């Protein structure tokens, strides 16, 4: 019997209105329901709760599994930066899962990526004995997160109350002139950006590989460097 067996998965659509429980269900079943695949579902959850290191690690691991680490949008340095930002927020009991994801990264590194290897190696104190142990440990970690989600989201409750900083508060912290937007550049919450199509905007949130920007009264998610 699956977790989330009360979820009716007929007609799923990939949009922000989908409840947390339904998104976790998509992960649990590992099916493409409508347009929602497991790695996209984890990505949606990590964007909703950018301060939750466990969800972010699940999203990163699923992304690596589905797409590898060498595609044009990310690359090894992007993955290393994501791991460095996730590591401080992980509970001690979940550190083996971090080591497992680092192992997945190392499997795809090349000799020219030695600088990335050196950066990420410092995050791990205890290593899995082999790739099989790493994958089993990661699977167990994901299972624990799904068990938590099954309890926390019953009755349509959210995984957690999102911590959303108001636009006025972000704008008050904005400093410096607006910078030209580029997917190859990194941005921080409160940065002002100019976009060739959408005009000037304010960065409201930053997650792995994306920024949420307010343009006039429209929020858009854009690709950006971590």
What does this structure look like?
The structure is a single chain. The chain has 226 residues and is an alpha+beta fold. Helix content is 43%, strand content 12%. The chain folds into two domains: 137 residues; 57 residues, no CATH class. The protein is built from eight helices and five strands; from the N terminus they run ααααααααβββββ. Strands 1-2-3-4-5 form a five-stranded mixed β-sheet, with helices on one face. A hairpin with a 3-residue loop joins strand 2 and strand 3. It is globular. The mean pLDDT is 84.
Give a summary of the structure in a few sentences.
By secondary structure, this protein is an alpha+beta fold. The protein is 43% helix and 12% strand.
Per-chain topology:
Elements: H1 20-29, H2 38-48, H3 53-67, H4 76-86, H5 95-108, H6 114-121, H7 131-152, H8 167-173, E1 179-180, E2 192-195, E3 199-207, E4 210-215, E5 218-223
Parallel strand pairs: 1-2
Antiparallel strand pairs: 2-3, 3-4, 4-5
Helix pairs in contact: 1-2, 2-3, 3-4, 3-5, 4-5, 4-6, 5-7
Supply the number of structural domains: 2
Specify the oligomeric state. single chain
* Low-confidence region ranges: none
The N- to C-terminal Cα distance equals 39 Å
The structure class reads alpha+beta
Radius of gyration of CA atoms, rounded to a whole number: 18 Å
> What's the pLDDT, averaged over the residues?
84
Inertia-based shape: globular
Strand order of the largest sheet: 1-2-3-4-5
Q: Order of SSEs, N→C?
A: HHHHHHHHEEEEE
Q: Output the number of helix runs.
A: 8
* Biggest sheet record: 5 strands, mixed
The overall strand count is 5
Q: What is the strand content?
A: 5-15%
Helix coverage percent of residues?
40-55%
